[in-house]
Amino acid sequence: MAKVVKMTEYMQTASVDPIEVVRRHSLTALVRDEIERHIIEGELAPGDKLNEAEWAARLHVSRGPVREAFRALEQAGLVRTEKNRGVFVRTVSLAEADEIYAVRAVLEEAACRMLAGRIDARQLAVLRDWLDAMRAAFDAHDPDAYARANVAFHDAIVAAAGNRKLYETYRRLVSELSLFRRAALVVHADAMERSLAEHRAILTALASRDAGHAAALMQAHVRGGLQRARAACKEGEQKEQGGAAEQWSAAPSAPASDE
């Protein structure tokens, strides 16, 4: 009998308040979303270390939700944990980016096919608003604003397609791509203009309910984005190598020998 009483007491003390579970889960989600935003917007760069105590102080929360947020971000492919070193923003290689772009092209092509036959006036208005935002950013020579509107345009298409699993998969891929070098629109002066024209053509095809044409344009656009990203990476590496060579040549010579 004593054992039964003790077990009952243990179960009562060990039970978890469901309200506390919900509160903690919601808090973890908020912390995760905030850190994810910093990663996606480039405020945290690939290779940056995430300090649990610093983020807890910054967000005015205990370290528990931050630790859980780090785990969620690792599952989402945005950070990596190194034993005895800590948590770091993950780096996406060119080879991995190739794979992500290939899957993204398939997903967005499918989204265009799904959306074209059912697109309504409200959805078209949203896409036109984002296209206008891209145009304004292009006119202002603001690649960061252009990139944000660009992402929102694509997100709106996939979300409007009406397939939740497709959208969830797409969101994860886009988050991972944010870890890849995003200099493609900056390196080449005409990249934004070409991208803008491609988005305009996609919107026109969707408005015309031409599923096949919209899908083909989207696939070509995404694959073109990969080519621009590859070119940007190559040019960026060449500039880095050139800068290192200049620093080497500008370094003071070693003192002459007394021999």
From TrEMBL:
Q: What keywords tag this UniProt record?
A: DNA-binding, Transcription, Transcription regulation
Gene3D superfamilies from the xrefs? Answer: GntR ligand-binding domain-like, Winged helix-like DNA-binding domain superfamily/Winged helix DNA-binding domain
Q: What superkingdom does the record give?
A: Bacteria
A molecular-function term among this protein's GO annotations: DNA-binding transcription factor activity
Tell me the SMART domains matching this sequence: FCD, HTH_GNTR
Write out the ranges of the annotated region (Disordered). Answer: 232-259
| HTH gntR-type domain segment(s) | 25-92
- InterPro entries, per the entry: GntR_C, TF_FadR/GntR_C, Tscrpt_reg_AEP_util-assoc, Tscrpt_reg_HTH_GntR, WH-like_DNA-bd_sf, WH_DNA-bd_sf
**Which PANTHER family is this protein grouped with?**
TRANSCRIPTIONAL REGULATOR, GNTR FAMILY, TRANSCRIPTIONAL REGULATORY PROTEIN
Q: NCBIfam families attached here?
A: phnR_burk
The protein in question is named GntR family transcriptional regulator
Report the source organism.
Answer: Paraburkholderia phenoliruptrix BR3459a
